C-alpha cells in the first residue's frame, strides 16, 4: 500500500488525469485527494470513448471505489462544484475540507475586470488569483460558512492520514504544472500558488515522510496556454506538420506547442522529488505506437526517445501513454 503524488512536470495539460485514473484502477486507492489551485485547471479523462472534463472534483472520480476529497489548500467555486456533482453523480463520495477558501462572484468579476491579468499573463479568469489574495489577507470566506457545501464538509487531512495509518493506498493529484508554480515557475507568468509535489502534500495535510511515490507527468511535446517564456516552442507551421493542435480544457484557447525540454524536465524532477515519471503523447513521436500496450511492440524511435528522456530526468519512466484513451498505456512499474 502506497501514498502516491501525481504532479505535472511542464506547464500543465500533461495528461495527469489519465495517469491518475490508470494508477487508481491498478492500485485500488481508498482515497483520491485533490491539491492544487482551484477551478482554473481542467482535467480530461477518456473512458470507453467518452470524454470527461472536470475542474473541481478529482479526475480520479472515474474509479468508483475511491472517496473523493478536496484538500484545504484548494480554492472551491461552489457553482462549478455543484455542476460537476450533478453531472458525475459523485456527491455521495465527495468530501470538501471545511477550511477551503471560496471563490465568490466578486473574485471572478475582479479577475475579468478591465485590469484583468489575462491582458498581461493570460490567466483563465476563474477568480483564483483574487480569491487567493483575499485568503492571504485573512478575510476569505471558508467552506464551513457556505450552507450549500454543508453535506460535503470534512477534515481531509484526518481522513487521508487515517487511511495511511490503516495501510490503505491513497493518491494525491495535482493541477497545473511545475512551470507555472508561483515560486519555481516562469514568474510573473505563473499561477497564484506553488504547484510542486511538496505543496500538494501540504494542500491535503499529508506530511512529507508519509509520501512513498512521486510520479511526475511529462509530455513528449510540452504545451503552454497563455503568455510567458517557452524556450522550446515550435512554430505553428511545425506543429501543423506534426499534426499537433490542442486547446485548453477551461479556456478553449489554442495551446502553444514545444519540443522536449531536457533541462526543464531535469529541474522539475529535482524540485518535485520524482521517484518515477510518466510520459504522454508518445503517439506523436511515432504514430505507429498508437494504442500499443507492450514495451516490446514500441517502435525503436519511441524506445530511443524514452531512454534519452530517462537520462535527461534521472528517474525511470514507468508509465508510457500511447494515446488518449485509458487503456492506451504501458505500465512498467511492476517490471
What is shown here, in short?
The chain is built from nine helices and 14 strands. With 335 residues, the protein is α/β, with parallel strands linked by helices. The longest helix has 14 residues, at 300-313.
Count every helix, treating DSSP H or I runs of 4 or more residues as helices. 9
The dominant shape is: globular
Query: Low-confidence parts, pLDDT < 50 over ≥5 residues?
Result: none
The level of helicity is 25-40%
> Can you tell me the CATH class?
Alpha Beta
The CA-CA distance between the termini, in Å, is: 17 Å
Secondary-structure class:
alpha/beta
Overall residue-averaged pLDDT value: 93
User: CATH fold name, please?
Assistant: Adenylosuccinate Synthetase, Chain A, domain 1
Helix/strand order: EHEEEEHEHHEHEHEEHEHEHEE
CATH superfamily: Adenylosuccinate Synthetase, subunit A, domain 1
How many individual β-strands?
14
- The portion of residues forming beta strands comes to 15-25%
What is the correct CATH architecture? 3-Layer(aba) Sandwich
Binding site for Mg(2+): 13, 42
Active site: 13, 43
Binding site for substrate: 249-255
Catalytic activity: IMP + L-aspartate + GTP = N(6)-(1,2-dicarboxyethyl)-AMP + GDP + phosphate + 2 H(+)
